[in-house]
Write a structure and sequence with these properties.
A 7-stranded parallel β-sheet has the order 1-2-3-4-5-6-7. Helix 4 (135-151) packs parallel to helix 5 (168-178) and helix 5 packs across helix 6 (189-200). The protein is 35% helix and 13% strand. The chain is globular and about 50 Å long. The protein has 252 residues and is an alpha/beta fold. Helix 2 (52-68) links the parallel strand 2 and strand 3 (73-81). The chain has a single domain (5-241), classed as Alpha-Beta Barrel (TIM Barrel), CATH 3.20.20. The structure holds zinc ion (ZN) (2 copies). The site of one zinc ion (ZN) has 4 residues, from loops.
Amino acid sequence: MKIFGDYHTHTYFSDGRGGIGENIAAASRRGLEAVAISDHGFNNPRAFSLTRKKAAKQAEIIEKERSRYHDLRIYHAIEADIIGTDGETDMRSGDLEAFDFMLAGFHRFAKPKNAGAFFDMYVPAYVHKIIRPSKSVIKRNTLAFCRMIRRFPVAVVAHINDMVITDVKEVAMAAADYGVYLEINMKHLAVMRRALDGIMATNVKLLANTDAHTPEYVGDFSALDAFVKECPEIVPRIANAVLGEIKFRKSI
Ligand SMILES: [Zn+2]
Ligand SMILES: [Zn+2]
């Protein structure tokens, strides 16, 4: 199916392999109308994350690229990290001013807020495939994501239930309340399938993204075809399956 924008791509400014210009050129070649450069947030290991200085450099490059592509909307985004059970992220007040919007998700290498976050959220995430998270862990994770949505100007929740297991329906309800998109991440379609009933019971809007870490993969939504054949009811929820500008939340 045709998806018109890819709002989650990485470059060598974090752990991606291509440059900003390469991702943008790839998006243009695929005929997208929008692409976002969204490298990893500040609490990841320095070599694989943005710093505030690197973000400023990105902004310069993106500004130049914008003048070269008139039929492509180019966004400067950041994929921030949830780092605490209180919904804390690694975005400080004012950080979002450097970006067009923020995605946020859990990343295992991002420095946790404190020891409590490490033991209560990170450890169950690390072992979630071996030890099924208990009801209380799921409840705590769900609250953490809902609090993050309330406390931070998150526009897109990235790859929900990748490692940190939540009650997706609850998170989707909070997301819908605040105009936040839930992501259909091409690398985590199985998670989406499992959560589908919960999602469809809410009014949440979805955004399909590749999470490309190489330019070749930018705008490659081929995996979505089989998925929507299985779950066609999801199609009207996918905001970037229709042409037109996506309105991203920028404040709380
Ligand atoms: Zn991610
Ligand atoms: Zn990502």
